[in-house]
Amino acid sequence: MKICIVIPTYNERENLSKLVPKIEDVLFNSHLEGYIVIVDDKSSDGTGELAEQLAKEYGNIMVLHRHGKLGIGSAYREAFQKILNSLDVDVVLEIDADLSHDPAYIPSLVKTINDGYDLVIGSRYVKGGDVSNWSIVRRIISKGANFLAKNLTGVKINDMTSGFRAYSIKALRSIDLRSIKSNGYAFQVEILYKCAKAGFKAVECPIVFRERNKGRSKLGIRAVLEFLKTLVSIRIDKIL
């Protein structure tokens, strides 16, 4: 199966320099033919320039440069559209640039798609899944967000907000990406809801999520408000 891995970046130069070689090693050792699409939101630390260097070094990397910090959701939306228009792949994956997601899980996510699922969530909240180096407060916030998302959307997934996942190309082609309004982290919930509504099969596979060591989280109050707004919008859609 041909795969494509999307990595949104904003000031992740040091992390990206470690992540890309790990992904390339996984692809080589698991005999997966794949591409990487890096979407950089005009990082000030040279992440975009590093991405171009890595593209020249490996030959299977495409870099999308954007004119500012436009949000992780819009980065995925733009990357997915680019992939649908220009690449011949079977599976598209999301992975965070901050090393919180272990690329070693990529083959199992791809295999699960090959087993007949359309969307595979790398889940912290199923048996075998876990988080590392999180405070009690961070755990409570994450659990609360996922509880709200699961119950308001009606989608039977425990880790609705996970950013480590795989989509079948069939599912992505069937979803109207332009109809997804979320530009931030709420994108993960919104596209999952649209896939479920369209009848695509989703499943969770356990992963261990590790808190970033370098840089800082980009989650701010604006993203939280958008998340809540998205949940309300989805709930209204379900009622109507």
Describe the 3D structure.
This protein has 240 residues and is an alpha/beta fold. The protein has a single domain (2-239), classed as Spore Coat Polysaccharide Biosynthesis Protein SpsA, Chain A (Alpha-Beta Complex). It has eight helices and nine strands. It has helices at 13-29, 47-58, 72-86, 106-114, 136-153, 169-174, 187-197, 221-239; strands at 2-9, 33-40, 61-65, 91-94, 119-123, 130-132, 165-168, 202-206, 208-210. Strands 3-2-1-4-7-5-8 form a seven-stranded mixed β-sheet, with helices on both faces. A two-stranded parallel sheet has the order 6-9. Helix 5 (136-153) packs parallel to helix 8 (221-239) and helix 7 runs parallel beside helix 8 (221-239). The chain is globular and about 50 Å long. The model has no long low-confidence stretch (mean pLDDT 94).
Give the biggest sheet. 7 strands, mixed
CATH superfamily: Spore Coat Polysaccharide Biosynthesis Protein SpsA, Chain A
Report the span from N to C terminus: 39 Å
Radius of gyration: 17 Å
What are the SSEs and their pairings?
Layout: E1 2-9, H1 13-29, E2 33-40, H2 47-58, E3 61-65, H3 72-86, E4 91-94, H4 106-114, E5 119-123, E6 130-132, H5 136-153, E7 165-168, H6 169-174, H7 187-197, E8 202-206, E9 208-210, H8 221-239
Parallel strand pairs: 1-2, 1-4, 2-3, 5-8, 6-9
Antiparallel strand pairs: 4-7, 5-7
Helix pairs in contact: 1-2, 5-8, 7-8
Q: In brief, what are we looking at here?
A:
This protein is α/β, with parallel strands linked by helices and 240 residues long.
